[in-house]
Amino acid sequence: MDTEMEPKYDSKANEERIYEKWLHSGYFNPEKCEADGHTKKEAGVFSIVLPPPNVTGTLHIGHAAMLAVEDIMVRFARMKGSKTLWLPGTDHAAIATQSKVESIIYKKEGVNRHDLGREEFLKRVDAYAKESHDTITNQIRRMGASIDWSREAFTLDEKRNFAVKTAFKQMYDAGLIYRDFKVVNWDPKGQTVISDDEIVYEERKAKFYTFKYSADFPFAIATTRPETKLGDTAVAVNPNDDRFKQYIGKEFEVNFVGTKLNIKIIADENVDIEFGTGALGVTPAHSQIDWDMAQKNNLPLKQVINEYARIISDDPELTGKKTIEAREVIIDRLRTAGLLVKEEEITQNISTAERTGGIVEPLPKLQWFIDVNKEFSLVNSKINGVASGEPTTLKKLMRASVEGGQIKINPERFEKVYYHWIDNLRDWCISRQIWYGHRIPVWYPPEADSLQSGGQEPSADKFYVGVNPPEDKTWIQDPDTLDTWFSSGLWTFSTLGWPENSEDLKTYHPTTVLETGYDIIFFWVARMVLMSGFLLGEVPFKNVYLHGLVRDEKGRKMSKSLGNAIDPLELSDKYGADAVRLSLIIGAAPGNDVKLSEDRVRGYRNFSTKIWNAARFVMMNKVELAETPKLNTSQKQRIEEFSATKKEITEHLEKFELHLAGEKVYHYFWHTFADKVIEENKEYFKTGTTIEKQSAYYLLEKLLLDSLKLLHPFVPFVTEAVYEKFSPEKLLLVENWD
RNA sequence: GGGCGGCUAGCUCAGUUGGUUAGAGCGCUUCAUUUACACUGAAGAGGUCACAGGUUCGAAUCCUGUGCCGCCCACCA
């Protein structure tokens, strides 16, 4: 046998070669592992569905961290003999992808999506998505992900689309999906509605104006948005406020800077006596709370801002103006008329759209919603605390899934965050006015044009909801698409064949672990619990492992604009994917952010070299062993010491404490095996007897190969590269852990 | 306005249920060096574990309060 190993370990060449070797073996696929006897029946099932990266994106360091964590879990489970599935996929990421492609087309051809038309535009997006799909999947391979490519899914492929339509239909039939006209969050930049969770608050300085509508109005009101006051139909005061009691119920006709308003004085407990003037101008069309007050008090609605955040008015100087410009005009007029009482600077939270950064404009719109408080019952509930046939709600279901202990969130503190979100949850607006995504499976009769999303008024509820189009081909499908998180919510089971009751679904669902960043606990984690709870009556996963955000060495978020983004692929080329993986695992407790610097990665690259060189030394001294040689006392102790270390590492891995397991195995290999065990036995190879040489070699080879198993989940490439030198016919990938 | 997290060696962070002289990596100091590895080895310096109380035989770890730093949530118009 060859007892030489190349003096230098070339990570890049080896990593590419070894990934191919793994792929070729077919052992990323659980059925193949079972067929070849690597899976033990009694070890059970371990399944993870990959949080799908955006098809049109590229791999960033956060993805690399996610892949490292999941791959460690998966490799450990596979070596433990579990039937192990890691299922890959990509996300169509609706609005993100659409705007990306739009801007590319605009730059190249100077046309927008409306110029191209819906059909043509979608063709372009699909083409682009197909093209960039390979980029992201190749990058996933580069990190060493031992994922079952034969099951790859896409959130917008045919099977997933069928699942989405089925889910919509079932929820609609249960009365959980409804259509309503109300104030929603409109993103003027993205030209679509967004959900509450897609709002990002930004603190800004603003002017808080106190003024009277007109000289003949009895008191002043205060606002930061005077332009919306064109749409006021009431003033609300606290019923206990003596200053205003006398006015409650009265109506005033005022001339507000040239616009006639009918203002009714209403009482509402929620009005803060201390704040502003204690009187609140009610703008039903452009404020969520005001809308609610209007509903209670039967107030008329007056829309004064359009979809482009411009004023709608009879006043020629105001109409068509941007809201901020109109604000200035109005303030000027109030000041001139002597109606402006006070102007003060305050800081306020302004709502912006997460994806586009546009300032959110509350507008009344006809949209589709999921009712989170409506009662329904599950036919066959497997959720603790939710009985079959008993009334429950989506909110209750989401709470029970965690409260009943069927889902464990790690770190535990995020359970509180999760509950808090559920308790504050309002109905989820799921329709979007974008083209790229799952089209809403609802059709309207041809005469109902005005019913569609642009429509202002709810009309006759004549429409058809179904997985397949209606018989009557003249009916028109709703032009809107679904929130991307609607399809993502189905991900753990739509990827396993649902709505079909497939073998995969029976075997792998609920999945063992959902591993993702803590920043999408609401967007995604909670929505999966909701969907799985309602559609399957069970939890989507048993464990949630939330990794932190990867930051730069100064603790800043990595971003293109800051220029501090570290490219995991560049790093992998330079130092090896093994080193990148380790640097993202060690010291990264779940839920905690990781600070990454190139120095750190370099340190772990040195570790790969160490593994290679230690192995090289062992290989150099290879002797043939006819039988197991006798070991001396200290050698025996080394074996025991290894067993103890292995036990600790195994326990850490079983408890998902990857950062502790990683550190321990790193430390053991370098500072015990290499620094102590090898050094202690070196002398035997130089001056020892044949028997001593045999014992020393036996010990070193055993501890080396056993260590490689412990190391393999963390640094799969270099360990496999070494292992093949010692056991060319075997694959460490499917070696037995125990 | 609520809630959560952090504050441990010069820097980045571990420290699982409270238990002996508090750990790692990087950095620093000194030494070693033609035989696995300089992407190295050995030895070492460096910490009143944010602060103030309390519980305990014993606290970085549990409790209370304070101070910074960060994050999340919330319809003060």
Explain the overall architecture.
The protein is of the alpha/beta class and 738 residues long. Among the domains are: 192-366, Isoleucyl-tRNA Synthetase, domain 2 (Alpha-Beta Complex); 598-734, Orthogonal Bundle (Isoleucyl-tRNA Synthetase, Domain 1), CATH 1.10.730. 41% of the residues lie in helices and 17% in strands. The chain is built from 22 helices and 27 strands. Strands 6-5-14-18 form a 4-stranded antiparallel beta sheet. It has a 4-stranded mixed beta sheet with strand order 10-11-9-12. A hairpin with a 2-residue loop joins strand 10 and strand 11 (259-267). Residues 451-458 have low confidence and may be disordered. The chain binds one RNA strand of 77 nucleotides through strand 8, strand 12, helix 8, helix 11 and strand 27.
